[in-house]
Every structure is written in C-alpha cells, then in structure tokens.
Amino acid sequence: MKPLIIFCVLSLASCISSETPAAQCVGQEFDNLQERIQITPCGKSRCKLTKGSVTTVTFKFKPKTVVKSLTNNVYADIAGLPLPFLGVTGSDACPNVKKAEDGSPAPCPLQPDQEYVYTNSFPIEAYYPQVDLRVHWALHDGKRDVICFEVPAVITPGKKKAQLN
Q: So which residues are the signal peptide here (predicted)?
C-alpha cells in the first residue's frame, strides 16, 4: 500500500483524484470525466478559489481524431453571464500538454487514441467578485470540443496582510 501512496504523491497526473466535482458540459459526453480531472484547491462539493492565490487544473484526455491545435476556452458562469478568465481564455493550450505515459512534451498536432495530460495554473485576481459560480473549461480544436467540463466554485476573500505600525 505504501508504494502506491508514494507513487500517487510523486505522479499527480497518474493518480488524479475524484475529489473535483466536475460535470459534463451540456450536450457533451466524455468517458470517466470525474476521474480525469483535479483542480487544487477543491473540495467534494465545490472548488474554493481564494483571491490572491493560484489555482492549478490538471486533467487527462484522449482525442478521438487528430488535434491540429488546442485553444483554452475558460469562463466563469455567474448567474448565467459568462465572464472569461483573462489570460487563460483564447490562449494556446498546446504548451500545457504532456504525454500521459511518460510526461514528455506533446506538441500539437496530437494523435488520436493517445492519452495526454494538461496542466495549467492561473491566478485568482484580487479584483474578482466574491461569488458562487460555475467554471467552464474546454479545450477547442477549431470549434470542436476536445474535452469540456464544468465545476462549481466559490471565490473567497484573500488573507489579510499584517500591518506594521
């Protein structure tokens, strides 16, 4: 049992936890979605995004066809209003992809039926409102979703800095 625990700690991409409460995007169906996604920090019912912190998303995906390019499509759905995560939405996702089998870089184009791991970290800005939201995360090849999921989240206040007198 200990070797498995050590292996999971050393290889996050290989032992993605089912803690992240991910759901399929409307009209989409991706196999074993919840087992493929980990967002940190995240709990069993929603992810807690603290202002002034950095959130990391890691997930596995297996394209069904050749993927020529990958673009991030990430936004916060707040009361039905989609607000893009600046600096993430529209950016090239290919540099964030590695081969699942050995962790080596996997530049686009990506091959069908091969497993890949995507990892990205992004700041939770101090100016974000403190609200409940759904994070929509998709990787697009042109207009086609290669993978798409949504996660319930809440933006919480950052830690107060100690003042010197």
A: 1-18
CATH code, residues 23-156: 2.60.40.770
Q: Where are the domains of the chain?
A: 23-156
β-sheet bridge partners, residue 116: 61, 99
How far is 10 from 20, CA to CA, in rounded Å?
19
- Using a cut of 0.85, tell me whether the model's pTM lies above it: no
| Cis check: omega of the bond before 63, within 30 degrees of 0 | no
DSSP per residue, 81-111? EEEE-TTTTTSB-GGGEEETTT--B-PSSBP
* Mean per-residue pLDDT of the chain: 84
HSE-up (13 A, CA, CB side) for residue 68: 4
pLDDT tens digits, one per residue of 72-97: 999 999 999 999 988 889 999 999 99
Average pLDDT value for residue range 117-123: 93
β-bridge mates for residue 75, sequence order? 84, 136
Q: How far is CA 47 from CA 31, 83, 139, 155, in A?
A: 22, 17, 20, 9
